[in-house]
From TrEMBL:
Residues 132-184 are annotated as: Disordered. It is found in: Mitochondrion. GO terms for molecular function: structural constituent of ribosome. Residues 148-158 have a biased composition (Polar residues). Keywords: Mitochondrion, Ribonucleoprotein, Ribosomal protein. The keyword Nucleus does not apply. The keyword Transferase does not apply. Its main location: mitochondrion. This is Uncharacterized protein. InterPro entries: Ribosomal_mS25/mL61, Thioredoxin-like_sf. GO terms for cellular component: mitochondrion; ribonucleoprotein complex; ribosome. It comes from Phanerochaete carnosa (strain HHB-10118-sp).
Length: 184
Protein backbone atom coordinates (compact mmCIF):
# COMPACT_ATOMS: atom_id res chain seq x y z
CA UNK A 1 0.00 0.00 0.00
CA UNK A 2 1.56 3.35 -0.98
CA UNK A 3 2.27 5.93 1.67
CA UNK A 4 0.09 9.00 1.89
CA UNK A 5 1.68 12.25 0.88
CA UNK A 6 1.67 14.56 3.88
CA UNK A 7 2.40 17.83 2.10
CA UNK A 8 2.59 18.74 -1.54
CA UNK A 9 3.54 22.33 -2.13
CA UNK A 10 1.70 24.18 -4.84
CA UNK A 11 3.69 25.84 -7.63
CA UNK A 12 3.23 29.25 -6.04
CA UNK A 13 4.41 27.88 -2.67
CA UNK A 14 7.47 26.33 -4.31
CA UNK A 15 8.35 29.58 -6.05
CA UNK A 16 8.03 31.43 -2.72
CA UNK A 17 10.34 28.90 -1.03
CA UNK A 18 12.89 29.11 -3.85
CA UNK A 19 12.80 32.92 -3.76
CA UNK A 20 13.60 32.77 -0.03
CA UNK A 21 16.43 30.26 -0.55
CA UNK A 22 18.00 32.33 -3.35
CA UNK A 23 17.55 35.71 -1.63
CA UNK A 24 20.56 38.03 -1.51
CA UNK A 25 23.08 37.87 0.03
CA UNK A 26 23.80 34.26 -0.86
CA UNK A 27 25.32 32.65 2.25
CA UNK A 28 28.25 30.92 0.52
CA UNK A 29 30.63 30.07 3.34
CA UNK A 30 33.88 29.31 1.52
CA UNK A 31 36.02 29.25 4.67
CA UNK A 32 33.70 27.00 6.71
CA UNK A 33 33.82 23.20 6.53
CA UNK A 34 31.23 22.40 9.20
CA UNK A 35 28.75 24.06 11.51
CA UNK A 36 27.33 22.80 14.81
CA UNK A 37 24.57 24.65 16.64
CA UNK A 38 23.11 23.75 20.04
CA UNK A 39 20.08 25.49 21.50
CA UNK A 40 16.91 24.93 23.52
CA UNK A 41 13.94 23.77 21.51
CA UNK A 42 11.63 25.82 23.76
CA UNK A 43 11.63 28.24 26.71
CA UNK A 44 14.65 30.25 25.54
CA UNK A 45 17.15 31.09 22.77
CA UNK A 46 14.70 32.94 20.50
CA UNK A 47 17.25 34.46 18.15
CA UNK A 48 19.02 31.15 17.65
CA UNK A 49 15.75 29.38 16.90
CA UNK A 50 14.82 32.03 14.34
CA UNK A 51 18.28 31.69 12.80
CA UNK A 52 17.79 27.93 12.41
CA UNK A 53 14.31 28.43 10.94
CA UNK A 54 15.08 31.34 8.58
CA UNK A 55 18.78 31.33 7.71
CA UNK A 56 19.96 27.73 8.09
CA UNK A 57 17.91 26.45 5.12
CA UNK A 58 19.50 29.17 2.98
CA UNK A 59 22.96 28.15 4.21
CA UNK A 60 22.22 24.49 3.43
CA UNK A 61 20.95 25.40 -0.06
CA UNK A 62 24.03 27.49 -0.88
CA UNK A 63 26.49 24.99 0.70
CA UNK A 64 25.14 21.47 0.02
CA UNK A 65 28.37 19.69 1.03
CA UNK A 66 28.78 21.48 4.36
CA UNK A 67 28.45 19.31 7.47
CA UNK A 68 25.66 20.93 9.52
CA UNK A 69 24.66 19.52 12.91
CA UNK A 70 21.71 20.90 14.87
CA UNK A 71 21.14 19.85 18.49
CA UNK A 72 17.83 20.90 20.05
CA UNK A 73 17.95 20.12 23.74
CA UNK A 74 15.32 20.43 26.46
CA UNK A 75 15.84 23.36 28.81
CA UNK A 76 13.84 24.38 31.83
CA UNK A 77 13.66 28.04 32.86
CA UNK A 78 15.96 27.21 35.80
CA UNK A 79 18.76 25.87 33.59
CA UNK A 80 21.50 28.37 32.91
CA UNK A 81 23.23 27.10 29.78
CA UNK A 82 23.58 29.26 26.69
CA UNK A 83 23.22 28.41 23.00
CA UNK A 84 26.40 27.89 21.04
CA UNK A 85 27.43 27.95 17.41
CA UNK A 86 30.71 26.20 16.61
CA UNK A 87 32.36 26.54 13.21
CA UNK A 88 34.89 24.10 11.81
CA UNK A 89 37.01 26.08 9.37
CA UNK A 90 38.73 24.66 6.28
CA UNK A 91 42.17 25.27 7.79
CA UNK A 92 41.32 22.77 10.56
CA UNK A 93 40.68 25.25 13.37
CA UNK A 94 37.40 25.70 15.20
CA UNK A 95 35.75 28.93 16.24
CA UNK A 96 32.77 29.52 18.53
CA UNK A 97 30.28 32.33 18.16
CA UNK A 98 28.45 33.84 21.11
CA UNK A 99 24.82 33.72 19.97
CA UNK A 100 23.11 34.21 23.34
CA UNK A 101 20.54 37.00 23.26
CA UNK A 102 21.25 37.97 19.65
CA UNK A 103 18.83 38.43 16.77
CA UNK A 104 18.97 35.97 13.88
CA UNK A 105 20.20 38.75 11.56
CA UNK A 106 23.11 39.51 13.92
CA UNK A 107 24.06 35.82 14.09
CA UNK A 108 23.93 35.62 10.28
CA UNK A 109 26.11 38.74 9.91
CA UNK A 110 28.74 37.43 12.35
CA UNK A 111 28.78 34.03 10.63
CA UNK A 112 29.21 35.64 7.22
CA UNK A 113 31.99 37.91 8.56
CA UNK A 114 33.95 34.79 9.51
CA UNK A 115 33.29 32.56 6.50
CA UNK A 116 31.72 34.70 3.78
CA UNK A 117 34.80 35.51 1.72
CA UNK A 118 35.12 38.18 -0.97
CA UNK A 119 31.48 37.98 -2.12
CA UNK A 120 30.31 38.92 1.36
CA UNK A 121 32.79 41.80 1.63
CA UNK A 122 31.58 43.15 -1.72
CA UNK A 123 27.95 42.89 -0.56
CA UNK A 124 28.73 44.77 2.67
CA UNK A 125 30.51 47.58 0.82
CA UNK A 126 27.61 47.98 -1.64
CA UNK A 127 25.02 48.12 1.15
CA UNK A 128 27.01 50.57 3.25
CA UNK A 129 27.62 52.80 0.21
CA UNK A 130 23.87 52.80 -0.51
CA UNK A 131 23.12 53.73 3.12
CA UNK A 132 21.27 50.48 3.77
CA UNK A 133 21.73 47.99 6.61
CA UNK A 134 24.08 45.12 5.74
CA UNK A 135 21.30 42.57 6.33
CA UNK A 136 17.61 43.38 6.49
CA UNK A 137 16.46 43.24 10.09
CA UNK A 138 13.40 41.01 10.51
CA UNK A 139 10.25 42.94 11.30
CA UNK A 140 8.08 41.58 14.10
CA UNK A 141 4.63 40.51 13.05
CA UNK A 142 1.96 42.96 14.23
CA UNK A 143 -0.36 41.66 16.88
CA UNK A 144 -3.84 41.05 15.53
CA UNK A 145 -6.42 43.55 16.72
CA UNK A 146 -9.19 42.00 18.82
CA UNK A 147 -12.38 41.67 16.85
CA UNK A 148 -15.24 43.52 18.48
CA UNK A 149 -18.68 42.15 17.96
CA UNK A 150 -21.36 44.61 16.96
CA UNK A 151 -23.43 43.74 20.04
CA UNK A 152 -20.60 44.67 22.42
CA UNK A 153 -20.17 48.12 20.94
CA UNK A 154 -23.90 48.82 20.71
CA UNK A 155 -24.44 47.99 24.43
CA UNK A 156 -22.31 50.97 25.45
CA UNK A 157 -24.94 53.44 24.29
CA UNK A 158 -27.87 51.68 26.00
CA UNK A 159 -28.76 52.62 29.59
CA UNK A 160 -28.20 50.01 32.28
CA UNK A 161 -31.62 48.91 33.62
CA UNK A 162 -30.06 47.69 36.90
CA UNK A 163 -28.29 50.95 37.76
CA UNK A 164 -29.61 52.78 40.83
CA UNK A 165 -30.79 56.34 40.58
CA UNK A 166 -28.70 58.91 42.45
CA UNK A 167 -31.34 59.41 45.15
CA UNK A 168 -32.34 55.73 45.52
CA UNK A 169 -30.71 54.00 48.55
CA UNK A 170 -29.30 50.50 48.27
CA UNK A 171 -31.21 48.22 50.67
CA UNK A 172 -29.49 45.03 51.77
CA UNK A 173 -31.47 42.32 53.57
CA UNK A 174 -29.17 40.88 56.29
CA UNK A 175 -31.17 37.64 56.43
CA UNK A 176 -30.30 36.70 52.85
CA UNK A 177 -26.99 35.99 51.11
CA UNK A 178 -25.64 36.56 47.62
CA UNK A 179 -27.79 38.20 45.00
CA UNK A 180 -30.93 37.58 47.07
CA UNK A 181 -29.67 40.08 49.66
CA UNK A 182 -29.98 43.02 47.26
CA UNK A 183 -33.02 41.90 45.26
CA UNK A 184 -36.44 43.12 46.43
Amino acid sequence: MPRKVKFVATPSELSRILAHLKKDPRPQLQKVKGLKITYAYRNDHWGTRHFVKDELPRIRYANPRMDIQVNKLPKTPQDGWKPELTLELRDGSTQSLDVDGKWSSTIFTELMDIGGGSGWEKWKQERIAAGLPVVDIPKPKPKPQPKHSSSATSNKSLPNPFALADDEPLVINPGKTGAAAVLP
